[in-house]
């Protein structure tokens, strides 16, 4: 994977067969989205199984995002609004849940409390599509695991001319918190019926990439459209082309001014700075829970971030993170094993050749979450 920005594809009637899903995976789908507003649990369960089987077969790290409908026009108890869907999500062990029509920080906290009582561990993506949620976006980002800029309903709430600047604001805000942000709605809408997008749509996708979004989302284009595979491939091509003009150095300088007084964040920033300065081929991050990779991604390095973890769950969750290619490997027990495994991963993924430089980040003592404190420049 040379593309930093990830692609979310909504599955539906047009993309429910194993053959189409496999072609979408090969075309660039990183995250499969299932919308519980449509279909039934049995259908969604089958699709989840299909994606995971094909992901395993192709050896592509792919995550499942389950979109929970919520209540558009009234507010109810969070158990009543999301309870049944949360139980289904937990039973399927999905990688992310997206909450629709959230209007307050309190509601997000209530859902998190509900998940805790269920003993369910699922990252929450809050869809920003209501004016109230937009007003509290910063506070929501502090407790959520990511956000989605849901431009359709947001345009109705705040008026359409305000959406472009709001999109930029939300993406920048999410970047600052180091939380994934998905830009969604009508990105390649003409491809529902056409094999090619409009020039305006191509520009829209490219601008979202240049704004710093972690992921781009296709909805009707892949769920009910006539060209789900072509839409996926087109999105990937536009994103890749836009990334050629991405201001990596500027972003690194900008985020380096907003430093946090934390060892693990300082380590991540230093790793990105060193990788840029020595022209390393990649950054190899050893991570137990995935936070090290997310901290690195926050600084938007030009280099691919190879996140090495022993957890299959973490592998799937990192499929949403900008510039991160998750790799599952046994957990090293000695520092020498860390360096040897980093070399092995760099060669296996074909990001480096013998004699190339890579930058390694890890934590000492090993296998302790949140202890990233080591940076090493290593010759493959």
Largest sheet features: 8 strands, parallel, barrel
* Tally of alpha and pi helices: 16
Mean pLDDT: 94
Any idea what the CATH architecture of the largest domain is? Alpha-Beta Barrel
Radius of gyration: 20 Å
Helix-and-strand structural type: alpha/beta
What portion of residues is helical?
A: 40-55%
Q: Strand arrangement, largest sheet?
A: 1-2-3-4-5-6-7-8
Q: What name is given to the CATH topology of the largest domain?
A: TIM Barrel
According to CATH, the homologous superfamily of the largest domain is: Phosphoenolpyruvate-binding domains
Which residues form runs of ≥5 with pLDDT under 50?
none
Please give a structural write-up.
47% of the residues lie in helices and 18% in strands. The protein has 380 residues and is of the alpha/beta class. It folds into 2 domains: 6-243, Phosphoenolpyruvate-binding domains (TIM Barrel, Alpha-Beta Barrel), CATH 3.20.20; 248-379, Pyruvate Kinase, Chain: A, domain 1 (3-Layer(aba) Sandwich), CATH 3.40.1380.20. Strands 1-2-3-4-5-6-7-8 form an 8-stranded parallel beta barrel, surrounded by 7 helices. Strands 11-10-9-12-13 form a 5-stranded mixed beta sheet, sandwiched between helices. Strand 1 (6-10), helix 1 and strand 2 form a beta-alpha-beta unit. The protein starts with 5 loop residues before the first strand and ends with a strand.
């Amino acid at each position: 994977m040379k593309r930093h920005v990830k692609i979310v594809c909504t599955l539906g009637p047009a993309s429910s067969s194993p053959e189409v899903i496999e072609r979408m995976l090969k075309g660039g789908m990183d995250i499969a989205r299932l919308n519980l507003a449509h279909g039934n649990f049995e259908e969604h369960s089958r699709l989840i199984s299909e994606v995971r089987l094909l992901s395993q077969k192709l050896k592509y790290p792919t995550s499942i995002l389950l979109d929970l409908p919520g209540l558009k026009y009234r507010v109810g108890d969070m158990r009543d609004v999301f309870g049944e869907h949360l139980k289904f999500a937990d039973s399927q062990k999905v990688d992310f849940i997206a909450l629709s029509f959230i209007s307050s920080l309190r509601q997000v906290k209530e859902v998190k409390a509900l998940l805790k009582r269920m003993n369910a561990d699922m990252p929450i993506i809050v869809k920003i599509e209501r004016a109230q949620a937009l007003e509290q976006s910063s506070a929501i980002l502090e407790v959520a695991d990511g956000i989605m800029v849901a431009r359709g309903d947001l345009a109705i709430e705040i008026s359409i001319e305000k959406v472009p600047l709001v999109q930029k604001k939300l993406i920048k805000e999410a970047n600052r918190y180091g939380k994934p942000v998905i830009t969604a709605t009508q990105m390649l809408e003409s491809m529902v019926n056409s094999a090619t997008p409009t020039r305006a749509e191509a520009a829209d996708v490219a601008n979202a990439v240049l704004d710093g979004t972690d992921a781009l989302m296709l909805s009707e284009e892949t769920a009910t459209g006539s060209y789900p595979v072509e839409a996926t491939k087109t999105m990937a091509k536009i994103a890749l082309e836009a990334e050629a003009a991405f201001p990596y150095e500027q972003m690194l300088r900008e985020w380096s001014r907003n430093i946090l007084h934390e060892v693990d964040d300082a380590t991540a920033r230093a790793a990105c700075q060193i990788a840029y300065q020595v022209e390393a081929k990649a950054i190899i991050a050893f991570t137990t829970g995935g936070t090290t990779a997310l901290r690195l991604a926050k600084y938007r390095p030009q280099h691919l971030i190879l996140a090495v973890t022993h957890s299959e769950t973490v592998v799937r969750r990192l499929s949403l993170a900008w510039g991160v290619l998750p790799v599952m490997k046994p957990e090293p027990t000695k520092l020498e094993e860390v360096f040897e495994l980093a070399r092995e991963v760099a060669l296996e993924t074909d990001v480096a050749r013998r004699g190339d430089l890579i930058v390694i980040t890890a934590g000492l003592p090993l296998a302790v979450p949140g202890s990233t404190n080591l940076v090493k420049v290593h010759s493959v």
